[in-house]
Amino acid sequence: MSIISIVIPAYNAEKTLLKTLNSVQTQTFGDWEALVIDDGSTDSTAQIVKELHDPRINVFSYPHAGLAAARNHGIINATGDYIAFLDADDLWTTDKLELQLKALQDHPEAGVAYSWNYFQYENPADSYEDTSQRFQGNVYGDLLVKNFIQNGSNPLVRKEAIASVGLFDPSLKSCEDWEYYLRLAKQWHFVLVPQVQVFYRKSSTSLTSKIEVMETYLRLVIDRAFQSAPPELQYLKSQSLSWVAQYIAEHYLKSKQATLKQLFFVGFNLCKTIYLHPSHASEAYTHCLIRMFLKQLFLRVFTGRNSPQETVLN
């Protein structure tokens, strides 16, 4: 039995899976097992795993049921005392497991360790690292406002913490990771490893590129979360909805094919961002989004074309 079990959901991941697995194989902490959950792939995903001939990496094949269900299959089959999640198109730095495990061992009250992220876009100019998240300890209120973990490839979680909250909700087709982190944060402290250790790859075919679906489930997760949140935290809901509006506006602005209708929707969301949480009006990040919006709107209206993608400040 290994100390850490790594759960890797994979659906038609033949183009990215090998690099993802290589980033696991080069970890400085070596006592791990990797469970690649083949979620009904029709490509060579399962074959790639078998051809590695690494006894620490095993593939489990199931009918296609989605990301949450695939992670649940991994949890059920995991034998480690800690569980890490890694999507089949993301990467880790070599010391990711070592430092997150040490953080949990140094903080026995914590159930979850997380790190900073590098957002890797297809257009290198859009890529950036985010070192702004510094929440530790009881982070439930902070996590109600926004998903500061930022993706499903980040956390290392104690097996006891997972046992205390159960499995991922397979009815959620997006944002299932945020909903899961919220359940964990209700019962466990979080600890931060203040280093960029997760390379979160963003592509036009990724789930987060389906903006309308993502927005629907973001709002669903928020509504659910605040139904069970204590009265003293209910005031945070408007701030959470403000973050969603800002997040959706950014994703539309980063789309190369945003329509004029979508750009007007961006403007609506930027107004909502400030209305729901006025302090956003003074932030450089919001100013950058507004400038991008005005430039793209001008080009769309007066020239009928898109502007080149720009880097958004973070």
Q: How would you portray this structure in words?
A:
The chain has 314 residues and is of the alpha/beta class. It has two domains: 4-206, Spore Coat Polysaccharide Biosynthesis Protein SpsA, Chain A, CATH 3.90.550.10; 230-302. The chain is 43% helix and 19% strand. The protein is built from eleven helices and nine strands. The protein has helices at residues 17-25, 45-52, 67-77, 96-106, 140-145, 159-165, 176-187, 211-228, 237-253, 260-276, 284-302, and strands at residues 4-10, 32-39, 57-62, 82-85, 91-92, 110-121, 128-130, 156-158, 189-202. Strands 1, 2, 3, 4, 5, 6, 7, 8 and 9 form a nine-stranded mixed sheet that branches. The longest helix has 19 residues, at 284-302. It is globular, with a radius of gyration of 20 Å. The N and C termini lie far apart (41 Å). Mean pLDDT is 93; it is low at 308-314.
Secondary structure blueprint with pairings:
Layout: E1 4-10, H1 17-25, E2 32-39, H2 45-52, E3 57-62, H3 67-77, E4 82-85, E5 91-92, H4 96-106, E6 110-121, E7 128-130, H5 140-145, E8 156-158, H6 159-165, H7 176-187, E9 189-202, H8 211-228, H9 237-253, H10 260-276, H11 284-302
Parallel strand pairs: 1-2, 1-4, 2-3, 6-9
Antiparallel strand pairs: 4-8, 5-9, 6-7, 6-8
CATH class of the largest domain: Alpha Beta
Beta-strand residue percentage: 15-25%
Largest sheet: 9 strands, mixed
**CATH topology category name of the largest domain:** Spore Coat Polysaccharide Biosynthesis Protein SpsA, Chain A
CATH architecture of the largest domain: Alpha-Beta Complex
The shape, in one word, is globular
What is the name of the CATH superfamily of the largest domain?
Spore Coat Polysaccharide Biosynthesis Protein SpsA, Chain A
Structural class, by secondary structure, is alpha/beta
Q: Overall mean pLDDT score?
A: 93
